[in-house]
Design a protein that fits this description.
Length: 302
């Protein structure tokens, strides 16, 4: 079954898996009821992070590793235009939909300052990109289909870039903008490395690589090199089995549970009862087969 014919209820991003771990109700509302983008509020820090991540992706895709920083800073402006256009084209309920109100001159200036500081800290040295087929696309996005009964499921998403490590091992990198050092320490180094490595593994194997290294790089701590995990690409069946089991448990959820945290906008929403009713009516609890809806394809994350 092709990845784009698998229903959204059976397609999981890293964020979806995180939601399920934190609050089952939030997961069902964001994922099955597809309210994720509608409920997203956005903020300045998220916008700065998105500008920076898009800029480093463009740097790699256009082989600009050796250009002076003045040239590279233009990538932040290009990223600003991309986010604005994408949000205008696809509306509020899309990947960048919540960011436009935060795309201010001030935010762009901060992103440029962070990029410049990062550039100086790494001595203007960037690793080359590993030019996999998907990495070379305008909007790189990976999907990994797992065959299960009664129907296949998939993991999907996109790390920021695949770079070539100094030892010749490809590095699947996700760049993070975290103002608070405590948030660095809380970084998910369990599911995140597994998800992104599984997504990129097939392509890297096809290119002849036998190992891959997942790595988090912090825009505000350019020297931090300890957030990584190495994988033997021959071991991907184990990772696949891990996610198959995890997703199977999610789809077999028979009752809702609620985190009831003050910051949980889903548990604390005035629409709570309405959503509970919608989830029950849809027949999702108890592992029954969900109905694919017509609007499903409207907000793919790319
Ligand atoms: Zn909750």
């Amino acid at each position: 079954m092709a990845w784009d014919s698998i229903p959204r209820t059976h397609s999981f991003s890293l964020g979806d898996l995180h939601d399920f771990g934190r609050c089952v109700f939030k997961f069902f509302v964001n994922h099955h009821l597809q309210k994720k983008y509608e409920l997203a509020e956005g903020n300045a820090n998220q916008t700065i992070g998105s500008l920076l991540d898009l800029a480093i992706k463009k740097l790699h895709q256009n082989n600009m590793q050796n250009l002076p920083v003045e040239e590279l800073l233009k990538l932040i402006e290009a990223a600003r235009i991309d986010i604005k256009n994408e949000a205008e084209k696809r509306g509020k309920n899309s990947f960048f939909g919540a960011l436009p109100p935060f795309l201010t001159d001030e935010v762009v200036i901060t992103a440029k300052e962070v990029f410049k500081d990062y550039h100086q800290a790494v001595g203007g040295k960037y690793k080359p990109m590993v030019p996999t087929y998907i990495m070379r696309k305008l909007k790189p996005f990976w999907a990994y289909v797992i065959q299960t009964t009664p129907q296949p499921v998939q993991i999907w998403g996109a790390p920021d870039v695949i770079e070539l490590g100094e030892d010749g091992v490809p590095e699947i990198v996700d760049y993070k903008y975290r103002e608070n050092p405590a948030d660095q320490a809380k970084m998910d180094m369990d599911l995140m490395p597994k998800v992104y490595t599984l997504l990129c593994a097939r392509e890297l194997k096809e290119m002849g690589y036998s190992k891959a290294r997942f790595k988090v790089k912090f825009w505000l701590s350019p020297k931090e090199e300890s957030f990584y995990e190495e994988f033997d690409l021959a071991n991907m069946p184990n990772l696949e089995a891990f996610f198959k089991d995890k997703i199977d448990r999610i789809l077999r959820t028979s009752e809702l549970s609620f985190c009831e945290k003050d910051f949980c906008k889903v548990c604390k929403s005035s629409q709570r009862n309405q959503w509970i009713a919608q989830i029950q009516v849809a027949g999702w609890l108890g592992g029954s087969t969900p109905v694919k809806t017509a609007e499903e394809k409207s907000d793919l994350p790319f």
